[in-house]
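Write out the 3D structure for:
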Amino acid sequence: MMRSLLALSVIALVATVLALAIGSVTIPPSELWAVIQGKGSMLHSTLVWELRLPRALAAFATGGLLAVAGALMQVLLRNPLADPYVLGLSGGAAVGALLAMLSGMGALLISGSAFAGAMLATVLVFGLAHGTGSWTASRLLLTGVVVAAGWGAVITLILALTPSYKLPGMLYWLMGDVSYARTPWPALLVLALAIAVIMPLARNLNVLARGSMQAAALGVSVRPLEWTIYLLASLLTATAVTTAGSIGFVGLIVPHMLRLVLGNDQRIILPASALAGGILLVLADTLARTVIAPEQLPVGVITALLGVPTFLYLLHRSR
């Protein structure tokens, strides 16, 4: 366990260094080391400390949030191909953000509106799935799919009514773009707190993954644990979408790939997902910044191009 996490930590450090050095202006290793020591040129110091490092940390936090949320959703729904966006959270966040953009609000209010929209989607899905009785994993999943389709229709309506000069920013946000991240620290704090909260419950998650009946027979308080997973996964997803827009496939691919390599022990999968998700999105964002530099691609495009063939391979393999 420790060796795997240590290896992922080293890879995360290497990915961050690459993100600092590579871009439209390449910083040689010697100059990057001088900047870290506080001795570099003013241009390179500005690039590293004010532009690239905050963006790399935001990408790492967003990727970690989505991967951990995906791992939790896959346990909750007992489905290894579940996705953190499957319950319509990204749709609610997108509607909130697009309405804020349409109203001409500032970046801070856009982030706040996106978070409010995601939380509204969480309450809506949970309330509809619960109804007058109890909810099951399949009922929650079906409700989320339907609500997500409803949000998609609202998003299409908003885009159709939006003036053309506002459309590019909206479309970039919908595709996922780390450059919209104002500061990485709230997302990093939420990620760290989530890992601290969920790790003591990892043994119970291992039991729950085998089925609620077996978990209850072994003394696990199933319903409170499922509520905790659902609310925590919703908070992680909402924070990620608020930070960088809607970025797909990270929460789906990363936990599934780690299970193939490390097994299905949540004590390993959860912290490994935080590291591996962060690594994936940092590398994807670095590629998005450099592939057609000085122009930039939305990082969601890169994750989709990587995620679609990977998902199809995993789906074929599961047969």
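The chain has a mean pLDDT of 85.
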